[in-house]
Amino acid sequence: MTQRTLAGLLAVPLLVALWFQVLREPLPYVIYAPGLTVDVLGTTDGEELISVSGVETYRDDGQLRFTTVLVTQPETDVNLFQLVGAWLDGDDAVYPYDAVYTPEDTDTSKDEQGAFQMATSQDTAIAVALTELGYDVDPSPVVSRVIDGAPADGELEVGDHLLAINGVEVTSIEDAGQAVDDAPDGEPVDLRILRGEKERTTSITRQEIDGQLRLGFEMRNSYQFPVEVEVGVDPAIGGPSAGLMFSLAIYDTLTEGSLTGGASVAGTGTIAADGAVGPIGGIDQKIAGARDDGAGLFLVPADNCDDALESPHGDMRLTRVATMSEAVAAIEAWAADPDADLPQCSADEAVTGE
Question: pLDDT digits over 181-217, tens only?
């Protein structure tokens, strides 16, 4: 055996090991894949996901399924093997890491954020459903988090109810956010709050946080509901995108008959206090998950229409919804006639979603 042949034979396993190592190196990408879908009208371990007391409820056939996406976490390494697999899978998607996460994001911070968003979406969903049914439900903005070291740190506490900002009474987080944004740059923002039984006033000057002038606190809408509603969802599922489906399930539970006509309807979308349906991420993966779980109709937030136009939905119908009321009307029309003329996403009216 010549020296050159021997060198070649020795080089082969080294090259194989080198390529194997290269293929395993983490790369700055995030993978989206279809997640599970959950029937909010169903049960978990024998317990109903939607529990209502203080008023008559109705349990009928049919499913209202919210959809989820499996997303690699901020601290999870993604290698070339995984990326190639995702690229070859027609239902998965790959995004640059910086398009999904910030350098400060961690697994813990994203889990905490997702849990807060889920809890907030459930409260708003209850309020929207009850409002749709004619109940009088008034929101009140409440401090849900104060950022350490921010201007609001030491001035506000979790649980403080916001009553007025710069002399303007606020009755929702949207009102409060707009009032803060309208404050002149560089001048203190005057807040009147209710802490426990006592009203207080404070003045806080905004500082730049993450590139924006902010006071450094987060809010959620608090409600006094006329009936008791509980939504029991696996705490491992986070985010705000199930809001619309929660509202629809509560509405169906409090009305006679099956909203879906006994069929399976899936969907996604955030829900605002005024019933507006907001855009979400991973629409293609959510549509794919609903398709695989046998849904006959999928509710697409209007601002996600652009992404949904080419989604792999198979025989499942897609319908465009912008409000809770539109969603109810679309489901009722489809339940009465699966071939009914429903609002559709089109290239002319599509709006790029997030």
Answer: 898 888 999 999 999 889 999 999 999 887 888 999 9
> Do 210 and 252 meet the contact criterion of CB atoms below 8 Å apart?
no
Domain with CATH 3.30.230.10 in the chain: 29-135+225-336
Helix, strand, coil proportions of the chain in percent (round to 5)? 30, 30, 40
Q: Global pTM?
A: 0.80
- Which residues contact residue 32 at a Cβ distance below 8 angstroms, ignoring those fewer than 6 apart? 69, 70, 71, 92, 93, 94, 95, 281, 282, 284, 285
Amino acid letter, 176? A
Largest CA distance in the chain: 92
Going by the DSSP 8-state scheme, the letter that residue 188 receives in this structure is P
Cα 124 to Cα 247: distance, rounded to the nearest angstrom: 8
User: According to the CATH classification, is domain 139-223 in 2.30.42.10?
Assistant: yes
Residues 6+ apart with CB under 8 A from 39: 49, 63, 64, 65, 264
Where in the chain are all domains bearing CATH 2.30.42.10? 139-223
pLDDT at 155: 95
Q: How far apart are CA 187 and CA 105, in angstroms?
A: 31
- Residue pLDDT, tens place only, 5-24: 544 444 455 545 544 555 55
Number of helices (H), then strands (E), belonging to the chain: the values are 9, 20
In CATH, the number for domain 29-135+225-336 is: 3.30.230.10
Torsions phi, psi of 314, nearest 5? Answer: 60, -130
3-state secondary structure of 21: helix
